[in-house]
């Protein structure tokens, strides 16, 4: 169970959001400068490196993986999520008439529309190659929001409610709608200390009935946004695949009936999967789509990221970073942040082990030849832009044609 934050209500200048405790309890929106300062994480190397053993310095080299230099995508995603939270809560004011009838509306989706309600929830999509750092970007954004806010009283009115600002679930790699449902219940249990997972696992309820219960839980706990990671694991309906194991139709129906904004995160394979359903495609396109590619060698953020990580040196004879090393680093990492940190960590540890104590072109080449050997084909395909065998790295055709 996550320790909830106590609701503190702030004044809001936009009139349509005023008087809504779910919105007023959200933290004030950050400026771009504040967001970058809060989300950028840089490890600090001690000054007494010469006094440390080889193993201790190799331990410190592992901290490169903890670094996060805030990219532009974090800023765009933060702003879009903040907008989605406010707009999503607009028609779900727990003190308003729409909230009183919302649970009944879930059971009767064809009933008359509620005042201020929307016909569907906004969906945001973040897709990119594996190793791009999509989950890290999302984590940096959501770290600026409390997971659960506990309400006790709003003004002179009692308000007993635990508001779940965001709920993150992972699509199961083995792919079944029931496994995905269990992941959703488990996320509720982790956030609130409930026992939904155990309760519904033993209920024997059918999948459509469980979908209704999920929608009711989202309404009851005022879920602000549902974050669905690893959506490339979704299973479409195939001739040899029964509906019980097909998670794509389930997510499609969930997006239609859950009534809260949804952020979908996945590799490029996700785009082709989501396009199998026209309804899903239309719903996904209702909000921001961040479609990312591996960084080019001259990309401004990539250069900044490499420069920043290079400064964290646990070797005794650090080398200055020049254009030649920049080119080697991009060639060996493919412009993917996950491989960049792996390359720099392995380079420093190899330099320490060999007594060379300098990460240079020779050391980087050794890492690539010996420790990245299983990645050679994928990185070569990424350089050529021909990733038919590695669909998680690039789409088979431009996004506009998927």
- The whole-angstrom Rg is 24 Å
Q: Quick one: how many beta strands?
A: 8
Cα shape: globular
Q: What summary fits the major beta sheet?
A: 5 strands, parallel
CATH level 1 name of the largest domain: Alpha Beta
For the termini, the CA-CA separation is 41 Å
Specify the CATH homologous superfamily of the largest domain: P-loop containing nucleotide triphosphate hydrolases
- The DSSP helix count reads 17
* Spans where pLDDT lies below 50 across 5 or more residues: 109-119, 396-402
**H and E string:** EHHHHHEHEEEHHHEHEHHEHHHHH
What would you say the CATH architecture of the largest domain is? 3-Layer(aba) Sandwich
Structural class: alpha/beta
CATH topology of the largest domain: Rossmann fold
Q: Secondary-structure map with pairings?
A:
Elements: E1 5-6, H1 21-24, H2 32-39, H3 54-61, H4 72-90, H5 97-107, E2 123-127, H6 134-142, E3 148-154, E4 157-164, E5 166-170, H7 177-192, H8 196-201, H9 207-220, E6 225-229, H10 247-257, E7 262-266, H11 269-274, H12 278-284, E8 289-291, H13 300-310, H14 323-333, H15 337-354, H16 361-371, H17 376-384
Parallel strand pairs: 1-3, 2-7, 2-8, 5-6, 6-7
Antiparallel strand pairs: 3-4
Helix pairs in contact: 3-15, 4-6, 5-9, 7-9, 13-15, 14-15, 14-16, 15-16
């Amino acid at each position: 169970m996550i320790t909830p934050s106590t609701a503190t209500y702030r004044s809001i200048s936009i009139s349509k959001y005023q008087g809504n405790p779910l919105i007023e309890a959200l933290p004030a929106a950050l400026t771009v400068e504040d967001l970058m300062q809060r989300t950028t994480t840089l490890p600090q190397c001690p000054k007494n490196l010469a006094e440390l053993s080889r193993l201790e310095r190799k331990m410190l080299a592992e901290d490169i993986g903890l670094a996060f230099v805030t990219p532009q995508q974090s800023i765009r995603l933060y702003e879009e999520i903040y907008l989605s939270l406010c707009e999503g809560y607009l028609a779900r004011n727990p003190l308003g008439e729409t909230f009183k009838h919302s649970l009944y509306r879930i059971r009767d989706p064809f009933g008359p529309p509620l005042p201020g309600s929307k016909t569907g929830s906004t969906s945001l999509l973040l897709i990119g190659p594996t190793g791009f750092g999509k989950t890290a970007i999302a984590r940096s954004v959501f770290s600026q929001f409390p997971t659960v806010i506990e309400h006790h009283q709003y003004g002179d009115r009692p308000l007993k409610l635990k508001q779940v600002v965001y709920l993150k679930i992972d699509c199961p790699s083995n792919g079944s709608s029931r496994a995905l449902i269990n992941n959703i219940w488990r996320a509720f249990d982790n956030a609130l200390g409930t026992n939904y997972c155990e309760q519904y696992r033993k209920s024997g309820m059918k999948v459509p009935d469980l979908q209704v219960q999920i929608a009711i839980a989202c309404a009851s706990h005022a879920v602000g946004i549902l974050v669905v990671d690893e959506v490339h694991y979704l299973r479409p309906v195939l001739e040899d695949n029964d509906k019980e194991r097909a998670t794509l139709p389930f997510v499609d129906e969930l997006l239609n009936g859950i009534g809260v904004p949804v952020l979908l995160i996945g590799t490029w394979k996700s785009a082709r999967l989501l396009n199998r359903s026209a309804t899903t495609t239309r719903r996904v396109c209702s909000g921001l789509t961040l479609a990312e590619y591996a960084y080019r060698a001259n990309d401004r953020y990539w250069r900044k990221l490499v420069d920043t990580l290079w400064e964290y040196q646990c070797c005794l004879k650090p080398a200055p970073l020049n254009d030649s090393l920049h080119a080697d680093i991009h060639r060996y990492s493919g412009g993917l942040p996950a491989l960049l940190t792996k390359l720099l960590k392995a380079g420093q540890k190899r330099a320490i082990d060999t007594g060379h104590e300098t990460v240079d072109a020779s050391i980087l080449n050794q890492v690539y030849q010996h420790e990245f050997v299983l990645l050679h084909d994928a990185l070569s395909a990424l350089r050529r832009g021909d990733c038919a065998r590695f669909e998680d790295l690039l789409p088979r055709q431009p996004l506009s044609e998927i």
